[in-house]
Design a protein that fits this description.
Blueprint lengths: L3 E6 L9 H12 L5 E6 L6 H5 L4 E8 L7 E5 L15 H12 L4 E8 L11 H5 L1 H14 L1
């Protein structure tokens, strides 16, 4: 198994936006492997570029507003020749572009997103998003086994 970083992120006070953090917490209790490091974050920040440079595989987990509630999407992140731009939110692709630019490393990477139903104030996941946790865990396990 490659040395792997998993980053689950989202706002824990915005209902389904917290999916990435919930998923990371579930993974912490299920994956017991010294080659896998699991982090939870409110959002992606430039400091994670250095952290990502130490791994062969990086998996980002987040909620998405452009998918039907509870649907999963797994996208491979490819290297872009465009310089990353910084704003309020940093995308996973922009973060890895920083990793490549600053540390000359670009790990194999994926972003797994789940369609959110509610991004309103709240601390619980909607039923559709809660139901996506098990399929997400299976997707992560597949990536770990096949990378």
């Amino acid at each position: 198994m490659p040395r792997t970083l998993i980053v689950g992120y989202g706002n824990p006070l915005r209902s389904d936006d917290a999916f990435g953090q919930h998923a990371a917490q579930h993974l912490l209790s299920r994956i017991n492997n010294s080659n896998v490091e699991i982090l939870t974050r409110h959002q992606l920040t430039p400091e994670l570029a250095e952290v990502a440079s130490h791994f062969e595989l990086v998996i980002f987990i987040d909620a998405a507003a452009d998918l039907p509630p509870g649907h999963l999407r797994c996208e491979r992140i490819t290297r872009s020749e465009q310089a990353p731009s910084f704003s309020h939110s940093l995308t996973s692709a922009a973060l890895l572009a920083c990793t490549a630019g600053l540390y000359a490393k670009f790990p194999e990477a994926y972003c797994i997103s789940v369609g959110g139903e509610s991004f309103a104030e709240g601390e619980s996941l909607s039923p559709a998003v809660q139901a996506a946790l098990e399929p997400l865990l299976a997707q992560v396990q597949s990536l770990l086994e096949n990378s």
